[in-house]
Amino acid sequence: MAETKKEVNLHGMWASPWVRRVTIALKIKGIPYEYFEEDLKNKSQLLLKYNPVKKLVPVLVHQGRPIPESLIILEYVDETWTNSPKLFPFDPYQRAKVQFWANIIDLQKLRDVVKAPNDDEEDKIIKEIQENMNKLEANVKDLYSGGTHVNGESMEILDVLMITLLPIINGVEEAISIKFIIPENFPLAFSWMKSSDGLSIVQESAPNHENLVKFLRKLRQIFRRV
Ligand SMILES: N[C@@H](CCC(=O)N[C@@H](CS)C(=O)NCC(=O)O)C(=O)O
């Protein structure tokens, strides 16, 4: 994989919701970038050079300088490209609140369900996900900026995070054949996750569901040795 002279490069992987957070944010901000698809079983020398500590995607490279970790990238992008729609609130208190919830909207446990070595572990992680969703559900009214989604430009950071949750929830549920996020149990959070479905920014960046399920099933087989 060759380094390019593009101002902004993104190292990603098609199925990754963490990467999708970044691609949606770059589109909202109107930032042109070059995309590098990584084979995570055989990571490129560039990825290892840019993210030697965690060796994960996404990594954004701006003018040759690497920035790892999706939430850090989102903040960096918002602070660097200021003449475009703002993703994080200006007000420090609102910003702190958003950052707190950004960490609660956690993708890690969704991946952990797929990798759970046995049913007991799987059940435990599913319960934790549901508890997290309950907390989110109880706070949606306070957090959702509400109904401003005329176009992608009006999306804010928590919208981006919520949007990227749904395809991965659907993919994981199908891959493990358990429906654990029942829309009726989380009606507000669920409609928030679906609120921007019609936007081209959202549609174009969505992973193909069948491919995602296949990918997650394979991952599960590796960890279950079935
Ligand atoms: N906390 C990281 C998580 C990123 C992450 O887990 N990336 C996965 C892609 S789905 C990865 O690179 N996995 C490769 C590996 O585990 O070796 C973020 O927010 O960017």
TrEMBL record:
The keyword Coiled coil applies. Residues 119-146 form a coiled coil. Keywords: Coiled coil, Cytoplasm, Transferase. Its main location: cytoplasm. Its EC number is 2.5.1.18. Signal peptide: none annotated. It is found in: Cytoplasm, Cytosol. It catalyses: RX + glutathione = an S-substituted glutathione + a halide anion + H(+). One of its GO terms (molecular function) is glutathione transferase activity. It comes from the Eukaryota. Residues 6-85 form the GST N-terminal domain. GO terms for biological process: glutathione metabolic process. Pfam families: GST_N_3. One of its GO terms (cellular component) is cytosol. Is involved in the conjugation of reduced glutathione to a wide number of exogenous and endogenous hydrophobic electrophiles. Belongs to the GST superfamily. This is Glutathione S-transferase.
